[in-house]
Every structure is written in structure tokens, then in C-alpha cells.
Design a protein that fits this description.
purine biosynthesis, EC 2.1.2.2, 2 domains, 6 helices, Formyl_transf_N_sf, phosphoribosylglycinamide formyltransferase activity, 199 residues, Rossmann fold, 8-stranded mixed β-sheet, transferase, globular
Length: 199
């Protein structure tokens, strides 16, 4: 099995993108999941991963009381122990420091619900509507120390429809996230960084 890249997936909640990634890593896929890790032991994503037969771990950020370096020192341990070649952030709601990111430079992916470089950070769907955008979408990018920055590896676009609410838009984008992230990971694990475009 070692000819396949080992993938650790970090989640904070239900892990719908994680499930899409896990379901894609079958057959001739160049990668396999080695760990699903959360900052919340009660995260629904951990239960789903365990049910799928994937190793899980949790490192609660709360006891560290804002000491991000100390939290990350613990967070990295199960990733290294699992032998991860690639780290995928899938709804992991903690901002990671340069010290953590640098350990996985060029090997860490994130999915963000906007067409980067537009709308870094939170509330992306509301911001797209407020701006009057005609299209919106999601981006998979390599993680760098700068928030929602790094080389773009894939984007999926959806139309903004008249009367859309942020929730409407979020639901439409999420469908594309579940298609885009697995498509990018498959290429990335095979050493291909050409841009994936959907929609």
C-alpha cells in the first residue's frame, strides 16, 4: 500500500468534504486516507471516518488557551505518526501558524468557499451577494502561511441566481466542493498541479 500517498484530513465539524475525499480514494486512486483528525473530539466527521474504517484522532484546542504553538505541537504528532504525505484541510476551523504550515509546505491543501483571490476569510456567500456578483464558487489551493492564499489548483463556478440567500448559494457551492476537492486531490497525489476547472 505504500506506493500510494498517505492523506491526513483535518476537520472541525460534520466533515462533508472529508466524506467526499474518503469516498474518492478507492481503486486506482494514487492516494489513500491514513488519518482523520479534529480539534473537537465530538466532531461528527470523526464518527463518519471511524465508520469508514479510517483511523481517527482528536486534539482539543481549548486547554491550550490561545497558545497556538503549543496546540499545534500536539496536533502535528498524530499526523507524523500516521506517516501522512499530504494534509487536506476540510472545514478545519483553526487558523494555522507559519510554524505548522512550513512543516507541510507544498503538501497541504485547503478548500475555500469563494473564487479566490476574492473573499478570503469568512461569510463569503453573503459578501458575494452584497457585491452583486453574477457568479460564485469554490477554490482548492495549496496552503501557505497567509490566510486563504497559496497557489490555486482548482476552481468550480456556480451562477448567482435572482433571489439567492447566502444559504441558497452555500448549498449550491457545496455540491461543487464535493466534486472539486476529490478531483484536485487525485491529480495532486499523482504529482499533477495543472488547474482543475468545473462549471
Amino acid at each position: 500500500m505504500r506506493d500510494k500517498k498517505q492523506v491526513a484530513i483535518l476537520v472541525s465539524g460534520g466533515g462533508s468534504n472529508m466524506v467526499a475525499l474518503l469516498e474518492s480514494m478507492t481503486g486506482d486512486h494514487p492516494a489513500r486516507p491514513c488519518l482523520v483528525l479534529s480539534n473537537d473530539a465530538g466532531a461528527g466527521g470523526l464518527k463518519k471516518a471511524a465508520a469508514a474504517g479510517v483511523a481517527t484522532a482528536a486534539v482539543d484546542h481549548r486547554p491550550f488557551k490561545g497558545d497556538r504553538a503549543a496546540f499545534e505541537a500536539e496536533l502535528v504528532k498524530p499526523i507524523l505518526e500516521a506517516g501522512a504525505d499530504i494534509v487536506c484541510l476540510a472545514g478545519f476551523m483553526r487558523v494555522l501558524t507559519e510554524g505548522f504550515v512550513s512543516q507541510f509546505q507544498g503538501r497541504m491543501l485547503n478548500i475555500h468557499p469563494s473564487l479566490l483571490p476574492k473573499y478570503k476569510g469568512l461569510h463569503t456567500h453573503a459578501r458575494a451577494l452584497e457585491a452583486g456578483d453574477s457568479e460564485h464558487g469554490c477554490t482548492v489551493h495549496e496552503v501557505t502561511p497567509a490566510l486563504d492564499d497559496g497557489p490555486i489548483l482548482g476552481q468550480a463556478r456556480v451562477p448567482v441566481l435572482k433571489g439567492d440567500t447566502p444559504d441558497d448559494l452555500a448549498a449550491r457551492v457545496l455540491v461543487q466542493e464535493h466534486l472539486l476537492y476529490p478531483a484536485v486531490l487525485r491529480r495532486f497525489a499523482a504529482g499533477d498541479k495543472t488547474l482543475v476547472q468545473l462549471g
